[in-house]
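Hello forum,

I keep getting stuck at the same step: I have a sequence, I want structure tokens, and every attempt I make locally crashes halfway through. Rather than fight my setup again tonight, could one of you with a working pipeline run this one for me? It's a single chain of 178 residues.
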Amino acid sequence: MNVSTAQLLADDFLDTVKRSLARHSVPATRLEIEVAETVLLDRSIARIGHTLEALRAMGCTLAMYDFGTGYASLSHLTSFPVDRIKIDRGFTRAIDSDGDRGLIARTLIGLGRGLGLEVIAEGVETESQRSVLAVHGCTAVQGYLLARPMLADEALPWLRGQQQRCAFPPRPRARELL
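Reply #2:
Ran it on my machine without issues. Output:
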């Protein structure tokens, strides 16, 4: 679930998340909260940090998406309880090239893994990209290679088919894998 600065600053956000999880009988360990790098630039960073800590204490997993776009300081990776970083698709697109953008993606993978974070590449469209990402230690991808955007009535049968092919156990936090 992508969340905005306004949501993280709302007085009732944590209660809303708890109620939603209870209403749908979903354990908090199955909910991933995605925060853009820009959220970490808000003046209310201490309050946002408190909310992120509370979400993590509930069992939610936290991911920073569009990582590498240059908005947040690298120190945010160690200051906030982030479990995963999601490399921006602009860098993923060039992963199998020798240019600077490919180098940035490879460096971000190394940085994330060095900090004990799971690294997810956004916008993977080709098997070549997935292969190069795997060679460099990226363990998860998302993008058109796996599935195109679809409506809810198309998504449910697709998800059922995916569930039949593989089990979906709760994913451990990357730092717990070390």
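The first helix runs from residue 5 to 9. If your local run keeps crashing, start a new thread with the error log.
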